[in-house]
Amino acid sequence: MLIALLLALSVVLQNAAAAQKPNIVAIMLDDWGYNNWGVHAKNKANSREVRTPVLDGLASVGIALDRHYTASVCSPSRAAFQTGRNPLHVTAVNGDAGRYNPDDTISGFDGIPTAMTGIASKMATGGYSTYFVGKWHAGYASRLQLPKALGYKKSLAFLCSGNRYWTYDAQFGICGDGGGVKLTDLWEDDGPAINLKPAADCSNALPNCFYEDELFEKRAVQWIKAHDARKPLFMVYAPHAVHSPLAPTAAQLQAFDFVQGSWSRKVYAATLADIDTRIGTIIQTLKNKNLWQNTLVVVMSDNGGPIALTGGASNFPLRGGKYSNFEGGVRTNALVSGGFVPAARQNTTLTGFIGVEDWYSTFSALAGVNPTDTKAQKAGLPPIDSINMWPYLSGLKNVSPRKEVVLASTSGGGGTKTQSLIDAKGYKLLAGTLKYAASSPAINPTAATPDDAHMPKLACGRRDPVYPYTGACLFNILKDPAETTNIAAQHPDIVVRLAERMKEIQATAFSPQRGAVPKDKVNTLPCQSALANLSGFEGPWLDMPFSNSTAAR
Ligand SMILES: *[C@@H]1O[C@H](CO)[C@@H](O)[C@H](O)[C@H]1NC(C)=O
Ligand SMILES: *[C@@H]1O[C@H](CO)[C@@H](O)[C@H](O)[C@H]1NC(C)=O
Ligand SMILES: CC(=O)N[C@H]1CO[C@H](CO)[C@@H](O)[C@@H]1O
C-alpha cells in the first residue's frame, strides 16, 4: 500500500517536473538572407520588399541573435544542428546521397554517421514528444540516418537539398536531375509518403494542388493540436522557403508586383512573406493551446542568402553569401522568442557568438539530460562541440561562452579542411579561394548582378587551405563587419597566431572516405532501388530489407 502510494506520488512528481520543462520549437529557414529580415532591412532601400512582420514581432518579444554562425551551405548546417558538432566534425559536404564506401559502414556515405546521437533522442530521453517536419538534408543512404532513427517520434520530411514545391519531386536526388527519371521526395516516419504524392502535373496554376510549405504548416499545426500537453513538446519545423526552385502562386506574387528589375528578387520576396504568415499560424496555434507561456521558439537560417542573379537574396551590408565563408554566407539571421524567454531579456539583442551546433547542448540542458554522446564515442566518432547557451540567453551570464567560430570547407579536394577561424576579438582568418566575394547591395539582385559563374572570387592563398595558410586574408569583423579591408599585412603576428590555432583544429577534422559520387546516377543501385523498392521515392538504399518491408506496408 505504502509502496503503491509512493510510486503514485513519484509519478505525479515526475509529471510535474516534466511539465515545467519548456516546449521547444526550432524553426530553420533555408537560404534566408541577412537583409531579408525586417529587423535588418528596417530603413534600408529594400524595406518595402521585405515583409516579415511575424519574424520581426518574435524578436521584439524575444532576443535577436546578432552573431549566430552556421555553415555556408545546407547539409553541414543541418547535420551540425542535429548532432551538436561543428560541420568539421560531422560533415562539411553538401550532399549526394548516392555515395558509398563499403569499407566504412558507419560513415562511408553522405550525411550524419549512423552512430551519432541526434538531438531529438536526447529530448526524448528528457521526456519530450518529438516532431520533425520539413527539409532533412542530413543524409539518407541508410535508414539509420533518417529522422526516426535520430529520435523523432513523428516526422514528415523531404530528404534531399530541394524538391519542387508543387510536385515534390527531387531537384538533385539519387537519380540526378532532369535525366528523365523523377523521384518523389517525401518521407513519413518509416516509409515513402505515398498517399501525399501530388498529381504529376501539379503546379502553382492548378486547383487541388498543395504548396509544399502549406502541407508542412498544416502538419505542424495538426501535431501541436493533438499534442498531449502533459509532456513537453520538441518540434523542428524546417520549411522549404526560401530555397529554390521558388514557385509561389500568382496571388502571392501579385502583392509584389512593385518589385522591378529582377524576377528572382520578386519571387523570393513573395515566398518569404508567405512563410512569415505560416510561422504566424504556428505561433497562434501554440497560443491557442496555452503552450506559449512555457515555450522557447528558436528561429535561424541554415546559411546566408544566395546573392547571384537567380538567387534573389541580399545579405547587405555583409560580404558574400551562400557557398562562401564570408560573413554573408555564415552569419545568419537568428532569434529566440516565446514566453519562456525571461522578461529582462525580451526585446533585446545579443551580440556574442553562437554556433548552430550549440543548440544541442542548450536544448539538452533545458531537457535535463547529459549532452555527451557515448554511442558515438564507442564508435570512435568525434565528440560534440556544442556549448550550452542558456545561461547567456537567460541573462545569468553576460558574455557568450563561445570564444571562437570555426568554419570548414571542402574546397580544393582532399577532404574536409578548416577554412576560417574567428577569435574573441573579431579577428577572422580566411584561407584558400573564396567564392561569392561580392557585397550585395540592399536591393539585390538587379539586372546587373552577375550569375553564379561570374561571381567574383577572392584569393586568400592556396586553393586547398593547409598550414601555414600562406597568403591567408585577415579581417576584423567587429570593426569591419562587411570584410572590406584585408589587414593581413599589418598584423603578421595575429595571422601566425590564428594559423597555429587552425592547424590545431585541422588535426581534429573528421573526413571519412564517403565514396565517389556516382556518375551514371540512373543506372546505379540507389536510383534503381528507389524505383524498384520505394515506389519511386527518395529514400535509403543501403539497408533495403528494412526499408522495403516498410515501403510495402
Ligand atoms: C521594443 O523596443 C523598442 C525600442 O527599442 C520599442 O519601440 C518597442 O515598442 C519595443 N517592443 C516591445 C514589444 O516591447
Ligand atoms: C530491392 O530490395 C531487395 C530486397 O532487399 C533487393 O534484393 C534488391 O536488390 C532491391 N532492388 C534494387 C533494384 O535495388
Ligand atoms: C524482398 C521484398 O520484400 N521485395 C518487395 C519490395 O517491395 C515491393 C513493393 O514496393 C515488392 O513488390 C517486393 O516484393
UniProtKB/TrEMBL annotation:
Residues that span the membrane, as ranges: none
The family this protein is said to belong to: Belongs to the sulfatase family.
Protein name as catalogued: Alkaline-phosphatase-like protein
Sulfatase N-terminal domain boundaries: 22-369
Organism: Tribonema minus
Keyword Glycoprotein among record annotations: yes
One GO molecular-function entry: sulfuric ester hydrolase activity
Secretion signal span: 1-18
Keywords: Calcium, Glycoprotein, Hydrolase, Metal-binding, Signal
Higher taxonomy: Eukaryota, Sar, Stramenopiles, Ochrophyta, PX clade
Family matches, as InterPro entries: Alkaline_phosphatase_core_sf, ARSB, Sulfatase_CS, Sulfatase_N
